Amino acid sequence: MPDSAGSGQWSRLPLLVLVALLTLTGCAGAGALGAGGQTLVIAIVANPQMNDAIELSDQFERDNPGVRLKFVRLPENQARAKITASTATGGGEFDVVMISNYETPQWAANGWLENLQSYVDSSPDYDAADFIPSIRDSLSYQGSMYAVPFYGESSFLAYRKDLFEQAGLTMPARPTWQQIAEFAARLDDEDAGVAGICLRGKPGWGESLAPLTTVVNTFGGQWFDQDWNARLTSPEFRAAAEFYVNLVREHGEVGASSAGFSECGTRYAQGQAAMWYDATVMAGTNEDPASSKVVGKSGYVAAPVQQTRSSGWLYTWALAMPKVTEHKQAAWNFMRWMTSKQFVQTVGSTFGWNRVPPGCRMSTYAIQEYQRAAQAYAQPTLDGISEADQRNAMVRPVPYPGIQFVGIPEFQDLGTRVSQQLSAAIAGQISVADALNQAQQYAHTVGESYRETR
Of the candidates 365, 385, 405, which is a domain's last residue? Predict the structure, then answer.
């Protein structure tokens, strides 16, 4: 696929977006000197696995005298905005930032990130060759790693085996979306407080648009065609959006328009949904006795499809070092600690093996304790990551990289705007047709700018 997110593309961001990013930038300053030496400021997403790392961080401080860690922990949408603002403007608030394979190649091309390859090469015990190739490659630019993965994921479907058995239903290993809709209708039980399915409806380019775009892909839709014509009102995109909105409105969770990964995770783990389509990393929470009421009751199958063989996404939360970071060696030492083989062992022995960051290191899947704990979902996770190939995820070729996102700088703004329209449709405030008509206007403006510079 042609990579439209090459060098200099970030300069294409609309002026209003850059202004908004500038207003978000604070002036706290990273790498400040604490009483005992260096203070590393780390911007991190407030997901469960990241919270585990924060709880264990005193071990790093103990082994690295003179370095103090200060975490800025934010929900996904806020973290993306704050980290983007700081990195794009060279604000210098953070020594280490948590970003994904969406940002990494773009920001590396722009010179915003420190090239980590020399640090990786000088740390032989770190064993970067142990990373799953597709994950490692997604965080590389021109053959060098610019971020190191904390956990990796594709997407798949979790379902309650006990509820399926009670209803006399059988889940295929590779279900279609039509089958999922039929199952959701059969299993939806308002009296018991169990939704047929949980799907994200919360606005955000990395929230509701992640699962929705995989549905668009497998329904034959595109954000843009090869000539950068916006295609959000095409029959295929419209069919996918109507299917998704109708499914979650008719058989989804209460308050779906404000439900994201965390909210769906809570509902499913509390037994309030019969199925949940989302990131493969969900499985650790589902099977954690400390937080879940449905331990051992779930099965996991490939992301549902319509016209393609597979539809799961590829994503990784990773650690990167802004170019302006002053304490580079200390920052790398922290990044190496949090993404190491030993960290996996520490999490497993401290919190339980279902809490281990998945989807990054092949060696994790060779640990016997993890094999036993993750028996239900380890192989589906690896299968999803290995099959997450853009050439297989879409029916027609597109000019942009990405599966659950459009890999161009403008997508942070465009995707958020479109997601707001679709969330309004899920809430019943507007029709899907009206939502897509407005979304098409947003996308047309972006596509037009690419056509003009071809």
Answer: 385
Over its C-alpha atoms, the chain yields an Rg (Å, rounded) of: 21
The helix (H) or strand (E) run that includes residue 447 is helix 432-452
The backbone torsions φ and ψ at residue 9, rounded to the nearest 5 degrees and listed phi first, read -65, -25
Same domain for 352 and 276: no
- Each residue's pLDDT tens digit, 57-91: 999 999 999 999 999 999 888 998 899 999 999 99
CATH number for the domain including 423? 3.40.190.10
What are the tens digits of pLDDT across the range 84-98?
999 999 999 999 999
**Structure tokens that stand for 272 in this block:** 């309030």
Task: Assess contact for 350 and 43: CB atoms under 8 A.
Answer: no
Q: What is the pLDDT of residues 341-372, one digit of tens each?
A: 999 999 999 999 999 999 999 999 999 999 99
Cβ neighbours of residue 363 closer than 8 Å, sequence gap 6 or more: 127, 130, 341, 344
Residue 298 and residue 244 share a domain: yes
3-state class (DSSP) for residue 204: coil
What is d(CA 136, CA 142) in angstroms, rounded to the nearest whole number?
12
Quick: pLDDT tens for 390-427: 767 899 999 998 999 999 999 999 999 999 999 999 99
3-class DSSP assignment, residue 18? helix
Sign of CA pseudo-dihedral 104, 107, 109, 114:
negative
Per the document, the length of the chain is: 454
**Could you tell me if 10 and 89 are in contact, meaning their C-beta atoms sit under 8 angstroms apart?**
no
What's this model's pTM, rounded to 2 decimal places? 0.85
Let me know: does 240 contact 214? Beta carbons within 8 Å.
no
Distance separating alpha carbons of residues 161 and 9, to the nearest angstrom: 46
What's the pLDDT score for residue 14? 45
Q: What's the angle, vertex CA 419, arms to CA 414 and CA 420, rounded to 5?
A: 100
Q: pLDDT of 163-210, one tens digit each?
A: 999 999 999 999 999 999 999 999 999 999 999 999 999 999 999 999
Residue with tokens 């490692």: 136
Q: How does DSSP assign 212-228, residue by residue? A: HHHHHHHTT--SB-TT-
Last residue of a domain, one of 385, 401, 432: 385
